Write the C-alpha cells for this entry.
Amino acid sequence: MKDWALVVLRCGLGIIFAGHGLQKAFGWFGGPGIAGVEKFLTMLGFSPVSFWAYCMIFVELGGGICLILGIFPRISAALISVLMIVAVLKVHLAKGFFMQSGGFEYNFLIVSVCLALILMGGGKYSVFNKY
C-alpha cells in the first residue's frame, strides 16, 4: 500500500501545483497570468522579475505535472519545497502560523509532503523514480 499512498501524495500535490502553474502561465482559473506574476514579484523586490516569474511558473506547472506522472519526483518535490520556503520567508512568516491570517500553515503542510516525497521517492508507480 505504500506505493499507492505515494501516488496519492504525488497526484494530490501535483494537481494543486499544476493548477497554480496554469493560473500563472495562462491566466486560467481566474489566475493573474504572467503579467500579474511579474507585478507581484516586483512588489516583493525580486529582480530580474521576468526571470523569477518564469522560474516560478516552471516549478509550479512543470513540477506539478512531473509529480503527477512520477517523473523525477524527488527533484520536483525539492524544487516545490524551495519555492514554498521562499514564499514563507517573503510573504507568510510575518503573518504568523495560521492560514486565516495569511500565515504559513498551508506552506508548512506542502513542505512536509515534499519532504516525505524526497525521502520516499515516488514509489514503483512512477515513470522515473530514482530521482
Observations:
- The CA atoms of residues 110 and 117 lie 11 Å apart.
- DSSP finds five helices and no strands in the chain.
- The radius of gyration is 15 Å.
- The mean pLDDT is 96.
